[in-house]
Amino acid sequence: MLLCLSGSCDQCGVCGGGSVCNGCDAETVGAEFDCKGACDGAQGLWSVDRQGVCCDMINDADCLGLCGGTYEQGWVSDMSYQVCCAKVDCAFMCNGKASVDSCGVCSGGVTGHTADSDMDCTDTCFGNVTCAPTMVRLRLEHA
């Protein structure tokens, strides 16, 4: 067993070391194991959120940084910047009123698109059938 004399250990605690602290991969300075046990995020950016849950912070966390959270980035009403919102519509507006219509088109709200306006008269989305206007006969009775 080799004993280090006082002052002969480097800042990494290695006896006679070169003062370069390699991490968990034995190569990269500062590389650490993530919460899933991978060395320095080798399997993604796994981290523990503020509630103590371990997840891939890029793909599984919301904009509040909560694993499995439901908040999303959305535009404020004047579209000058984005904030983290509980409800974002299909036009990416926080608390917006737009929704996807029967043809799969984001409509209403700030979109300027009227819902189901892409349907022809046979209710076919993006169809090209033009139907003749319906004639209504009115009978006027005079007393």
Please, could you describe this protein's structure?
This protein is mainly β. The chain contains no helices and six strands. It is rod-shaped. The termini are far apart.
Largest β-sheet summary: 2 strands, antiparallel
Overall mean pLDDT stands at 82
Helix content: under 10%
Main sheet: strand order: 1-2
**Silhouette:** rod-shaped
Number of strands: 6
**Number of separate helices:** 0
Q: Report the uncertain regions.
A: none
Order of helices and strands: EEEEEE
* Portion in beta strands: 5-15%
State Rg.
31 Å
Descriptive labels:
143 residues; mainly beta; two-stranded antiparallel ribbon; two-stranded antiparallel sheet; 6 strands; 0% helix; rod-shaped
Brief summary:
This protein is mainly β. It has strands spanning 46-48, 54-56, 72-75, 82-85, 99-100, 106-107.
Question: How is this fold's topology laid out?
Answer:
Blueprint: E1 46-48, E2 54-56, E3 72-75, E4 82-85, E5 99-100, E6 106-107
Antiparallel strand pairs: 1-2, 3-4, 5-6
